[in-house]
Design goal:
By secondary structure, the chain is an alpha+beta fold. The protein is built from 5 helices and 7 strands, in the order E-H-E-H-H-H-E-E-E-E-H-E. The protein has one domain. Helices cover about 30% and strands about 35% of the residues. The longest helix is centred in the N-terminal third of the chain and has 10 residues.
Length: about 130
Amino acid sequence: MHFIGKIDKNIYACVTEDITTDEVIITDERIGHIEDHHPGEYENIAPFLGEAVRSPDYILRDKANTGLILKMVEENGKRIQLVLRLHTSGDKPGYKNSIISAWRISKTRWESYVRNKHILYKRNTD
């Protein structure tokens, strides 16, 4: 288990208000999943996962208690998508919010998601 960072529960309340912890982790099993499905991606995006969960540009609707997070990393122009499962009071005690998967996405895919998916949260850029 690897500690990624902490979320602002107020931002993620758009997914569910029943968030039990602000801590975010990723497990070795999930890192393996990312490497299996998106070879070479984890090493490229790992340094930016903390920033992505702390300050998402968009949170899109996904399954219950899960959000699709979009983050543009300013310093290098990478666009990251990650799936974040939020821990709620109905889940096993002691668990944390968890990154399920993550990968880079293209500008075209980013724009398609913003245009076609249900946006729960958009970072204020003013």
